[in-house]
């Protein structure tokens, strides 16, 4: 079993040599604050399946995030998604799950 992972290590090292975008430590510093981020951002809400026409009257609906933070660093090619509800110790709640799914769908499209 261990030899299997040892034989995979050289292949993993080769794939890790790709030039990846770097994220400055200063960009991530607000995520480490004790009180969490002051602003979580917002995402577009999709009411239709991908490829289907938009639901009339709901084409550009935007959801302001309350419990999950989403920030896109386009120049670095990185999106940071973080639970941002320190008062409840980031406990999984229906709202946190819903916002996580909204962010995943937003990033997918």
Overall geometric form: globular
Give the proportion of residues in helices: 25-40%
Poorly predicted parts: 1-9
Tell me the total number of β-strands.
4
Gyration radius, in Å: 18 Å
Largest sheet: 2 strands, antiparallel
The class by helix and strand makeup works out as alpha+beta
Beta-strand residue fraction: 15-25%
Compute the average pLDDT.
75
Q: End-to-end distance, in Å?
A: 39 Å
Tell me the strand order in the biggest sheet.
1-2
The number of helical segments is: 3
Order of helices and strands: HHEEEEH
Describe the structure.
The protein is of the alpha+beta class and 109 residues long. Helices cover 30% and strands 17% of the residues. The chain has helices spanning 2-15, 25-28, 94-108, and strands at residues 42-44, 62-64, 68-73, 78-83. The strands form 2 sheets. It has a two-stranded antiparallel ribbon. A two-stranded antiparallel ribbon has the order 3-4. 7% of the residues are buried.
Please outline what is shown here:
The chain is of the alpha+beta class and 109 residues long. 30% of the residues lie in helices and 17% in strands.
List keywords for this structure.
3 helices; 109 residues; 30% helix; globular; 17% strand; 4 strands; alpha+beta
Layout of strands and helices, then pairs:
Blueprint: H1 2-15, H2 25-28, E1 42-44, E2 62-64, E3 68-73, E4 78-83, H3 94-108
Antiparallel strand pairs: 1-2, 3-4
């Amino acid at each position: 079993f261990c030899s299997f992972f040892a034989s995979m290590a050289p292949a993993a090292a080769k794939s890790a040599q790709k030039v990846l975008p770097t994220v400055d430590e200063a960009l991530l510093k607000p995520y480490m604050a004790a009180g969490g981020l002051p602003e979580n951002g917002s995402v577009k809400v999709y009411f239709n399946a991908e490829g289907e026409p938009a639901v009339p009257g709901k084409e550009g609906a935007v959801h302001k995030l309350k419990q999950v933070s989403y920030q896109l660093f386009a120049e670095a090619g990185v999106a940071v998604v973080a639970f941002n509800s320190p008062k409840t110790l980031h406990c999984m709640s229906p709202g946190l799950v819903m916002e996580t799914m909204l962010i995943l769908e937003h990033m997918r499209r």
